[in-house]
Design a protein that fits this description.
24% helix, Aminopeptidase, seven-stranded mixed sheet, 4 helices, alpha+beta
Length: 196
């Protein structure tokens, strides 16, 4: 398993997974995402993104999405997506990363700490209120200093041997079909089709 930056060719896949997960990304740009993949099969396991908010009071960095596809859950995939995103935030000179969630226990093993709304800077508090308006009042803010981020060793070990729950028993890779690329083979014409 490894995590890499998304490429332009990943855009359709990302948009389809975002829709399936019922996420909302009004500022979608594929280059803002990272994708976790299986090294041997190149099968995608999850994705995430950070979002930099530019305000009159300065910038702040939000861990906006972390999503692991169902067959890959409980295997450390999300942990490594978060690790990559926090590292990228640090590389962009952000010392602190925020996230807004109803599931704080997903983030606290890495060192994220809950932050009271009253203690947030105005732009961060405004973002929290925007997220709450869309997802519910039980969303809370968490933050972490980039240099304090850690991945528990058990998550690293799981990631090393991750495999999808729907992996065929015979160990063969799943072949991609025309439908995987949005092509209807009954209606498609091909450039080099000889018709005969």
């Amino acid at each position: 398993m490894y995590v890499r930056d998304a490429k332009n060719r990943d855009e359709v896949w990302l948009l389809d997974r975002i829709e399936e997960a019922e996420l909302d990304d009004p500022a979608f740009r594929s280059r803002d995402y990272v994708i976790a993949l299986d090294e041997e099969t190149a099968r995608k396991a999850g994705f995430g993104r950070i979002r930099v908010h530019k305000t009159d009071a300065g910038e702040f960095c939000e861990l906006a999405f972390v999503y692991t596809l169902p067959p890959w859950r409980q295997q450390g995939v999300g942990a490594h997506i978060i690790e990559r995103l926090v590292a990228e935030a640090g590389d962009s000179s952000h010392e602190t990363v925020y996230t807004f969630t109803r599931q704080p226990s997903y983030f606290t093993p890495f060192g994220f700490e809950p932050e009271a709304a009253a203690d947030l800077a105005d732009p961060v508090r405004d973002r929290l209120e925007t997220v709450r308006a869309g997802r519910g009042d039980d969303v809370i803010a968490l933050r972490i200093r980039v240099d304090e981020f850690t991945v528990p060793e058990e998550y690293r070990e799981r990631f090393k041997t991750a495999s999808p729950a729907d992996d065929p028993e015979d160990g063969k890779t799943v072949e991609e079909t025309a439908e995987d690329f949005g092509i209807d083979p009954s209606e498609a014409t091909y450039k080099y089709d000889t018709g005969g």
